Amino acid sequence: MTTLAADRKSALRRELAAIVGPGGVLSEPDELLVYESDGLTLFRALADFVVFPTSAEHVASVVRLANREQMPFVARGAGTGLSGGCLPAEGGIVISMMRMNRVLEVDYDNQIAVVEPGLVNLHLSAAVGPHGFYYAPDPSSQQACTIGGNIANNSGGPHTLKYGVTVNHVLGLEVVLPEDGSIVWLGGRTRDCLGYDLAGVFVGSEGTFGVATKIVVRILRKPQAVKTVLAVFDRVDQASAAVSAIIARGLVPAAVEMIDQLTIQAVEDAFSCGYPRDAAAALLIEIDGLRAGMDLQAERIVAACRESGAREVRTAADESERQLLWKGRKSAFGAYGRVSPAYMVMDGVIPRTRLPYVLGRVNEIVAAHGLRVGNVFHAGDGNLHPNILYDPRRPGEEARVVAAGAAIMKVCAEVGGSISGEHGIGLEKVDFMPFIFSAADLAFMQRLKTAFNPTGLCNPGKVFPTRKSCGEAGPVAYRPHPIEERGLAQRF
Amino acid sequence: MEALLEKLRATVGAAHVLTGIDLSPFVVDGRTPEAAVFPGTTEEVAAVVQQAAAAGTPVIPWGGGTAVAVGEPPPRAGLILGLRRLDRLIEHEPGDLTATIQAGLTFGALQAALRERGQWLSLDPPDAGRATVGGLITSNASGPRRHLYGTVRDLLIGLTVVTADGAVVRGGGKVVKNVAGYDLPKLFIGSHGTLGIVVEATFKLRPLPDAERLVAARFDRLKDAGVAARALLASDLIPNAVELLDAAAAAALGLEGAGTLVVGLDGVAEQVQWQAAELASLLEPLGARSVVTLPPPSWTRLAGLAREAFASPAALVTLSVLPTLVVDTMEQAAAAARQRGLASAWTAHAGVGAVTGALLADREAAAVATVLAEWRAIARASGGHATLAWAPLAVKSQVPVWDDAGPAARIMQRIKAQLDPHNVLNPGRFVAGI
Q1: Is B99 helix (H, G, I), strand (E, B) or coil?
Q2: ipTM of this predicted complex?
Q3: What would the pLDDT profile of A81-120 be if each residue is shown by its tens digit?
Q4: What is the dihedral of CA A17, A18, A23, A27, to 10 degrees?
Q5: Which of A188, B34, B162, B264 has the fewest Cβ atoms within 10 Å of its own Cβ atom?
Q6: Are B401 and B71 in contact (CB under 8 A)?
């Protein structure tokens, strides 16, 4: 990390203030502390400056200044990320997009909206909701996370099983290029792009290709009807088998979520959502679409669950019961707080059919490290979220958590899966990239990065494996993120 | 060239290297290649690319040849690298709803294999019998059902490519959700063989629907059909295809009417029945003269209707516009052709704004070129762009195939320079001079 001399720092501060206004720059250590972590509090890095632009031109000027000073920069949204992706790993400037948070335009006839990156995900659905529309990608942090952050991580959510992830809903982006601050549109408002799909490649590039300043997203019509089914199992492998059985019956539900016993008990202790405490696992299955035929589809799901050994299958009778079931799923994060002082969430993805095997291995690995795990995850997508519970005050426990996490990622890779389904590589998983990518794969990606980010100043230290140590980064004691403490977000 | 041929024969076997008269099926925009080579493995593809690169011979990847006309005439046709021997369905796990396929397998053969196990890759491009999986990706081919199921972009989850320096690189993976590393699959979609040679791909699949129905409604004016399409899109119905056909395109399907709206419905039987009834009651007050169910073979012909309208079209153009501007675009473009005394035929995926027009060839190339330039201007005025999907060389020499990509062209050129620095892969045929 760079250390700036005091006079140099105050000169730069004045220059930044001239760009974004005097209220738009932080440079004092106590102010900067708020921005040293994201949702993954294991990693920390301190910026030299945090700036709050309100226009693409502001961003462009900041980027030009950073280039002149050879100073790294990174865009940041709400800071709910779970891989350290928005941390200023090598110091420099954090460009907070939180003051660029407007819905600029909604074209209902063409089902698109133009938004700024700092817009909170759920606020878009709220804005278009009265017209019968919504924005489909629904990460569990959607009350706090921003569309710009979703772009960086190609975020998912429970309903991606049917509706796809962020990239499937992004048509175009206005981007400030890292090298010279020029403002360029990638893609646009039409569905088919001209030339390479630059917008498609930019999404999920974890902030290493530039800074998005406007985003054209698709909005969808709300479905006519929704039905939610809870299936309860005495064995985890039965629940896993039910996931494949549902798929095999030709159904693509909007969401299939799994919750294991430890999680159910924590949730019931905290919120009493109606999950049976003695169940080994429960599946929360949602279908949506036309009212016609919905009962028949629900019957098929019930049959698939029963044949897989479900001891109880129940359909939410009304909207309030449906909301209660989802509350159980969505408040799992908060509930873990009752059973453990801290936990680390994993994000591996596996082929659906390998669920029984991998869930077994996860339990073995965690037990072998002397730890406990709760599982609550997107079973329909095969996107696991093992939450390894631990106590950071016990010496050595954090190191065992990290070791168990690595072993779990290795298993995901071995069955043909991936080390991240929606949280990103960030800083956290850089050294695990070789589990799934060869040196040739990574070299090719590096060349692609160079095309967008030739100087490397835009969000350095992310995505690619590096032997360079990340300063003070590394396992340190867990503490809740400020957003977590306010109950605004959960982690999966 | 002889030295390169020797190496190629040693790599893939003499039987899989074509020269001379055998190259006639592989002519690209009137230019005969120097040789065509058909490797049998990924490793052989890599070796061939290395040998061609070392000899300074450009390489044109070739699947079924259905999209090879899309592009500027090649400065040098060089070496055709055919992928037809890489034609295996490597893995299909129905419980995972994914399949991994070699690039040279035809789309028709793939669908047939998947169908046996109750699934499908939810794309319906034209020429399914000849088009290959690799070509489908690199030409970003799609058809009417993209309205509901999207395009390659929404379905491709992983691929293996041979790069310009002969390395074998994998991007994405075999799982349906994956954010590890950059999204290389997106980079290759629609890249027309300029960044690497796709040798293997993994797709998300869907279960086959219980039932499917194709409904056609005839209107007195194309505009009326367009209004009906907007009403359908604003309703609760969830069609899988919403197609607009002008009179000439409808005639190719044996239908009459100045404007025809074709709607695809699928799902469980009850959903299809309910939607068909709703559709009829929605369309009749909007001026539908008749609402009929089309026979199932109509499905496969829908994607290619504009092209089928004329026995020998002078040009085929695709225009990408905002969905609300589809009918205006079709009408303005048809009028522009009429003013020059030329007939045209039009189809559109109305809900996504993808319009296809064919121009009838009974005038000299100059008149055709003038009309095509006007079509492009119409697309641009609607905030979109136009691509010359097919035209004879005489027309191509007067009209660019691709629109101007604007400031983004710089990034595209840099990507090309990074990934293919010696300009080995299909050079000179793509956007921005790539």
Answers
A1: strand
A2: 0.97
A3: 999 999 999 999 999 999 999 999 999 999 999 999 999 9
A4: 0
A5: B34
A6: yes
pLDDT band at B104; cut points 50, 70, 90: very high
Residue A276 has pLDDT above 60, yes or no: yes
**What mean pLDDT is predicted for residues A369-395?**
94
Q: Is the pLDDT of residue A416 over 80?
A: yes
Three state DSSP letters for A86-154: CCCECECEEEECCCCCCEEEEECCCCEEEECCCCEHHHHHHHHHHHCEECCCCCCCCCCCEHHHHHHHC
B179: nearest Cα among A348, A110, A484:
A348
**Whether pLDDT at A469 is above 80:** no
Predicted local distance difference test score (pLDDT) of residue A492: 44
Handedness of CA B240, B63, B203, A422 (dihedral sign): negative
Quote the tokens at residue B400.
Answer: 């660019």
In this complex, is the C-beta atom of B187 within 8 Å of any C-beta atom belonging to chain A?
yes
CA dihedral A270, A136, A207, B164 (to 10 degrees): 130
Question: Average pLDDT, stretch B354-373?
Answer: 88
- Residue B203 touches chain A, beta carbons under 8 Å: no
Q: Is B408 part of the contact surface with chain A (CB cutoff 8 Å)?
A: yes
The DSSP line for B259-274 is EEEEEEEEESHHHHHH
The beta-carbon neighbor of A463 closest among B178, B181, B210 is B181
Per-residue pLDDT, averaged over A462-487, amounts to 53
B-chain residues near A189 (CB < 8 A) = 322, 383
Q: Which residue has the tokens 């891989």?
A: A83
Amino acid of residue B201: A
Angle at A24 between CA A170 and CA A207, to 5 degrees: 30
- Residue A185, burial from CB neighbour count under 10 angstroms (0-12, 13-18, 19+): middle
* CA distance to A61, A315, B64, B82, B116, per residue, from B103 (Å): 45, 44, 10, 10, 20
Residues A177 and A348: their CA atoms lie apart, in Å, by: 31
What tokens does B215 get? 């409904």
Which H or E run contains B5?
Answer: helix B2-12
**Res B187: pLDDT:** 98
Distance CA B135, CA A3 (A): 52
**Nearest in space to A91 (alpha carbons), one of A424, A450, A473:** A473
| CB-nearest partner of A422 from B179, B190, B269 | B179
DSSP letter string over B273-308? Answer: HHHHHHHHHHHGGGT-SEEEEPPTTHHHHHTTHHHH
Q: Are A69 and A4 in contact (CB under 8 A)?
A: no
Measured in angstroms, the CA of B343 and the nearest CA of chain A are apart by: 26
For B288-319, the pLDDT digits (tens) are 999 999 999 999 999 889 888 888 889 999 99
- Measured CA to CA, the distance from residue B37 to residue B96 in angstroms comes to 35
Report the chain B residue with the minimal C-alpha distance to residue A218. Answer: B352
Burial tier of A68 (Cβ tally within 10 Å: 0-12, 13-18, 19+): exposed
* pLDDT higher than threshold 70 for residue A490: no
Instruction: Give backbone dihedrals phi and psi of A87, rounded to 5 degrees, phi first.
Output: -80, 140
- pLDDT surpassing 60 at residue A458: yes
The pLDDT value recorded for residue A467 is 56
From CA A404, how far away is CA A373, in angstroms rounded?
Answer: 10
CA separation for the pair B419, B417 (Å, rounded)? 6
Q: Is the pLDDT of residue B232 over 50?
A: yes
pLDDT at res. B303: 85
